[in-house]
Specification:
With about 450 residues, the chain is α/β, with parallel strands linked by helices. The protein folds into two domains: about 180 residues, Rossmann fold (3-Layer(aba) Sandwich), CATH 3.40.50.1100; about 200 residues, Rossmann fold, CATH 3.40.50.1100. Helix content is about 40%, strand content about 15%. Strand 3 and strand 4 form a beta hairpin. It starts with a strand and ends with a helix. It binds pyridoxal-5'-phosphate. Pyridoxal-5'-phosphate (PLP) binds next to helix 12. GO terms for molecular function: threonine synthase activity.
Length: about 450
């Protein structure tokens, strides 16, 4: 598979180039040059297949020419070390729980797949690959966990001295092995600047292989297609005679639109999707775009579904690119809704009261949009992107229940490593650590 840039200025890239550079030089985003159709026969057996086997078929349809079959199977199998169950909420609505991975959020899936693809390509190099990430919260944990103990790769997580909770810090300072936390005596902006400076530093690039695992890497996106197919598989095996022949309605809680882009790609590969429902919090720039056809970026503001506090979604250009040549406008394939914090809280309460289901604020946003949009006779699935334990305070308050963290030990104790190196926000200080840690 070759990958083109959505800006059409850079030349096409191989999978290896697209993954290892992350971004095309022209500032666009990589997209697969064609979307191969999965053979129809696959759907005859899909109801009996596991997430791993489904993922392998989809991955090899897309990347089969790039990575040897046994190798690709290994990468896919090691990505999905946890289940992604579909649970029935009502006769026509189910929820796909994407949050059973190590950091209790769906971003685990993209991070784990990307880490293993980078590891695969690191074998062509004589030195390990160094991944630099700056984090202000949860993203560092997901990336670090995805790369933890993956051979041929080291991860440096830069975080600001203030602003992270003990829990967030714990997610990457407690791993050890090839995950190296660095506390920067400065702000998150300093961390991001240091990462950028390291990338363009010629001296550093001569000495080390450096890459980024940023969220717009194409290999974080591709594995997110797999679970849409798996959701369909579980729906078929659960209620085989009630499937709308036009396909399923998926409701996606949207921030940077990675999840939605993956769903659109899955549909292009042949997954029967009737339409997508886009769920936004009060950061509604994409909702307005779907409704009016005009995009105006906005400054993000805080909401209770905070992972969707995005005013200028980074994957927007992938979606508009897919529709530039498409016969139908975006508004014919998706419906968009945006909700206030109060409406999201009501949805958490409603899901619990009416269906006994405890949802985090992001899943509850998607549920509300789906419930509003679904017509009689349709099958709807909403994506639950985070475990309610990640938002235990607010979800506990609304539902009046105690939300347990499935990963916490009986003492509820959080250990903190004490030997984290601290650096001043200067490239020289970062370079010293990168070059001396082996
Ligand atoms: C990142 C995130 C989202 C938004 O996903 P995108 O792919 O950026 O649209 C939704 N929910 C949770 C819990 C997230 O962490």
């Amino acid at each position: 598979m070759q990958f083109y840039s959505t800006n059409r200025q850079s030349s096409q890239a191989s999978l290896e180039e697209a993954v290892m550079t992350g971004l095309p030089a022209d500032g666009g985003l990589y997209m697969p040059e064609r979307i191969p159709l999965i053979p129809r026969a696959f759907f005859n057996n899909i109801a009996e297949m596991s997430i791993r086997d489904i993922a392998y078929v989809v991955a090899s349809t897309m990347l089969g020419d790039d990575i040897d079959a046994a190798e690709l199977k290994d990468i896919v199998y090691n990505t999905f070390t946890f289940d992604i169950p579909l649970r029935k909420i009502s006769s026509d609505i189910s929820v796909l729980e994407l949050f059973h991975g190590p950091t209790l959020a769906f971003k685990d899936i993209g991070s784990r797949f990307l880490a293993r693809i980078i590891s695969h390509y690191s074998r062509n190099l004589d030195k390990p690959v160094n991944v630099l990430v700056a984090t202000s919260g949860d993203s560092g944990g997901a990336v670090a966990s995805g790369f933890h103990r993956v051979p041929g790769v080291r991860v440096f997580v830069l975080y600001p001295e203030r602003g992270l909770s003990a829990k967030q810090r714990h997610q990457f300072t407690s791993l050890g092995d090839n995950v190296i936390p660095i506390e920067v005596l400065g702000t998150f902006d300093d961390c991001q600047r240091l990462v950028k400076e390291a990338f363009v530093d010629q001296d550093l690039r001569r000495k080390l292989n450096i890459t980024s695992a940023n969220s717009i890497n194409i290999c974080r996106l591709l594995p997110q297609m797999f679970y849409y197919f798996y959701a369909y598989s579980q729906l078929l095996s659960g209620q085989p005679d009630r499937i709308d022949s036009d396909g399923v309605v998926f409701s996606v809680p949207c921030g940077n639109l990675g999840n939605l882009t993956a769903g659109l790609l899955a549909r292009k590969m042949g997954l029967p999707v009737k339409r997508f429902v886009v769920a936004n919090n009060s950061n509604d720039s994409f909702t307005r775009f779907v409704r009016t056809g005009h995009f105006t970026p906005a400054r993000p503001h805080h909401s209770i579904a905070c992972a969707m506090d995005v005013g200028n979604p980074s994957n927007l250009s992938r979606i508009t690119d897919m529709y530039n040549a498409a016969p139908a406008p975006i508004s014919s394939d998706m419906k968009a809704y945006s909700y206030s914090d109060d409406e999201i809280a009501d949805s958490i309460a409603d899901l619990y009261r009416s269906h006994g289901y405890i949802a985090d604020p992001h899943a509850a946003t998607a549920y509300r949009a789906l419930a509003e949009d679904l017509k009689d006779g349709e099958n709807g699935i909403f994506l639950a992107t985070a475990h309610p334990a990640k938002f235990a305070d607010i979800v506990g308050r609304i539902t009046g229940t105690e939300i347990k963290n499935p990963q916490q030990d009986s003492t509820g104790c959080i250990s903190v490593r004490h030997d984290v190196p601290k650096i001043t926000p200067a490239l020289q200080a970062l370079k010293k650590i990168l070059i001396t840690s082996t």
